[in-house]
Amino acid sequence: MLALIGWFVRPYDTGLTDEPPGPVVARLTVLTSNVEFGQATDALVETVRRDRPDLVFVQECDRACAGTLASDVPRTDYPYRNVVAGSAASGSATLSRHPLRPAPGVEGALAMPGAVVDVAGHRVTVQLAHPLPPVPDAVDDWRRELGLLRDHAAGAKDGPSIVAGDFNAGQDHVAFRRILRAGRLSDSATLAGAARTPSWPAGLSGPLGTQIDHVLVSEDFSVREARFLDLPNTDHRSLLVELELHDVR
User: Fold this and answer.
1) Cα(221)–Cα(244) distance, rounded to whole angstroms?
2) DSSP assignment of 171-184, as one string?
3) Distance between the two ends of the chain, CA-based, in angstroms?
4) What is the pLDDT of residue 106?
5) Which residues contact 173 (CB under 8 A, 6 or more apart)?
6) 133-154 burial, b if ≥16 CB within 10 A, otherwise e?
7) With bands split at pLDDT 50, 70 and 90, how would you rate the model's confidence at 205?
8) Rounded to whole angstroms, how far apart are CA atoms 247 and 4?
9) For 213, which DSSP code?
10) Which of 136, 171, 131 is nearest to 152 (CA)?
11) How many other C-beta atoms are found inside a 10 Å radius of the C-beta of residue 206?
């Protein structure tokens, strides 16, 4: 029994050493939030105003959500945005305090936009993740879209990279671990000691819930803190991560 408990709580290998990979060039706070068909948009706006993350990844941002972000999140605070308007769960948004230009994203039934962000003169590839859930009639599509995220991670592994969002998968899924390996990525919650903190369904704890909301980072980053936040009107917990970007050249 003790062996089973030890397996359940043990952290996964992160691929990062205990020594920083280079001098710190910037600190970056990242928030990912699934607002469940836009229902938690107002709570997300309050969270953004309070915590002022540098990068915000929003999933299930419907057209009303996109409108609220446009009207209630000042452009002076987040001048750089990549918003894909859609109905119900299909829309997504990325907001940034740092210069951002859209880049080819990952193809999927739900919008997964990509971008390149300039952080202190360093080119950081960012990708929003939101593959289909593994419901009985979409398991093959779930695997295929996780495979496309793996391909993206592999293609971006030679520089600073962040992949964040609702992966509809966790550390116990082989397809998710393949994304980590392909991109030499680490799960920020794991690095912060919160590998088993559930993020869905919100309100459940321990083995009744699972962690499917992630911020994955390349070896250029170290993690100072990872916090899961409870927002009303969504079945997901949001994840706020404090990162340090290192110059590894």
Assistant:
1) 5
2) TT-HHHHHHHHHHT
3) 46
4) 98
5) 146
6) bbeeebeebbbebbbbbbebbe
7) low
8) 40
9) E
10) 131
11) 9
Return d(Cα 176, Cα 168) in angstroms, integer.
9
Residues 165-180 have a mean pLDDT of 97
Contact 38, 61 (CB under 8 A): yes
Q: Compute CA distances 140 → 49, 134, 135, 175, whole Å.
A: 39, 8, 10, 12
pTM of the complete model:
0.92
Task: List the structure tokens of 25.
Answer: 């060039």
For strands 80-84 and 92-96, give the pairing: antiparallel
Between CA 155 and CA 161, with CA 159 as vertex, the angle to 5 degrees is 75
State the Cα angle at 231 between 30 and 192, rounded to 5°: 40
Q: Are 231 and 47 in contact (CB under 8 A)?
A: yes
Across-strand partners of 221?
245
Q: Are 62 and 86 in contact (CB under 8 A)?
A: yes
At 186 the pLDDT is 97
Q: Which residues contact 210 (CB under 8 A, 6 or more apart)?
A: 170, 172, 198, 199, 200
Report the DSSP pairing between strands 24-34 and 55-59: parallel
CB 142 within 8 A of CB 170: no
Question: Exposed, middle or buried by CB within 10 Å (0-12, 13-18, 19+), for 161?
Answer: buried
> What are 125-149's pLDDT values in tens digits?
999 999 999 999 999 999 999 999 9
Q: What is the overall mean pLDDT for the chain?
A: 92
Q: In the block, which residue shows the tokens 């695997």? A: 143
Closest residue by Cα to residue 241 from 221, 185, 171: 221
Retrieve residue 128's tokens: 């929003």
